Amino acid sequence: MRIYSDPHTDETVVALRGEIDHGCEETLETSLTSALSCADRGIAIDLSKVSFWACSSVNVLLAVRQLALQHGKTVSLLATSPIAHRVLELTDTLRLFTTGTGAVPRVPHLSA
């Protein structure tokens, strides 16, 4: 996980990579909540390097989104890997994390 500020948008970006499964949900929620509390406007999450996304991890995103709304902040997605994109589509939660400019960019699937 990498957390940094985007100088172009003044958003705090949280870039996730690897496998996001049930075993790392507590760490994920703690990290996202911490990043959100330090952010002025909200956080943008980059899921483009996620190779596995457990359905149960969607609950973490929803909890952090709810917290953001309570504090007048936002949680958006910068990009999603094909795996993360599909899980968010199947759970009908992708639409909750789109920006005002439209759909969440999806990283194309690369095949060998």
TrEMBL record:
Residues 1-112 form the STAS domain. Coiled coil: none annotated. It comes from the Bacteria. CDD domains: STAS_anti-anti-sigma_factors. PROSITE patterns: STAS. InterPro entries: Anti-sigma_ant (IPR003658), STAS_dom (IPR002645), STAS_dom_sf (IPR036513). PANTHER family: ANTI-SIGMA FACTOR ANTAGONIST TM_1081-RELATED, ANTI-SIGMA FACTOR ANTAGONIST TM_1081-RELATED-RELATED. Belongs to the anti-sigma-factor antagonist family. This is Anti-sigma factor antagonist.
